[in-house]
Amino acid sequence: xxxxxxxxxxxxxxxxxxxxxxxxxxxxxxxxxxxxxxxxxxxxxxxxxxxxxxxxxxxxxxxxxxxxxxxxxxxxxxxxxxxxxxxxxxxxxxxxxxxxxxxxxxxxxxxxxxxxxxxxxxxxxxxxxxxxxxxxxxxxxxxxxxxxxxxxxxxx
Length: 156
Description:
The chain has about 160 residues and is mainly alpha-helical. The protein is about 55% helix and about 0% strand.
């Protein structure tokens, strides 16, 4: 008798799990779709005004604090380049990564629209909600810090 009651309970649990999973998947796809950058072509003016505003009065020291606060180092430092591109030398690479964008413009785009350019060998795994979590000033601080990191050590 107990076996007959257990079967409906297991089936109900499986159905509930499937429903929750489907709901989560739909919500994730809907949220991700709204974070896609504009489909316009990039040029040297792309993000220029936003970057100028973000970089005005930016502080590398504040950027370093924000990177620690948001745990960016978990993938960009501790991951040794397996999870995400390393921060070491990112400013120099950013200047060449997506012409005609400047290093600052590329980093700005990468933070706010991480799926705009996914590098070979990496998944689009960076959180796509920094537009909602960071102010322009904070983004400027982070970019200022990233531009100070040298290629060999990742130190300023």
